[in-house]
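Sequence in, structure out.
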Amino acid sequence: MLEHKLSLLLSREEIARGLERLAEAIKRDYQGQRPFLVGILKGSFVFMADLIREINMPLTVDFVRIQSYASTSSTGEVTISPEDPLPVKGRHVLVVEDMVDTGLTLSCLLGQLEKEAPASLKLCALLDKPSQRLVPVQIDYLGFTVPDLFVVGYGPGPAIPVSSRLVHYLAYNASRASNPLTGARQVLAPRGFN
């Protein structure tokens, strides 16, 4: 049912090669250290789990819940869950995110983490949408740069159920029909994509 409404953006094999490349760079740069990986919930958890398996070195993991989206578009306001603070002081912190778009969420998080005096602070992202950038963000480890499309399929996104059948990143063309994932019309239509 979804196949005719979704088009493949990155194959399983391309994603696997991207993960291998990222893991090799991270292992090289953190050799002899124990990096502290901080995943941004909920989107990054599948990517982060796969990345950790590829890295295969001693590390520590934690998560932060941070949000700047309402449904499928950025609100411009960043909210970080008021949970226990992340113990980053003196540690080599690697923030892991599935996709960087406006940069607002990551700029806020990285700024807050920097105030806590980590030994180092870097960012790893599977996808980058530079056409959406509102504030600059340095991505130290990047899997892929993608066009301005609504992208799903490698972990849950806003209002999108996790499905073991959606194992690739997929681009959804919402220009002609209602969204098969939520039933809403035109809400997810990517700019300039017909």
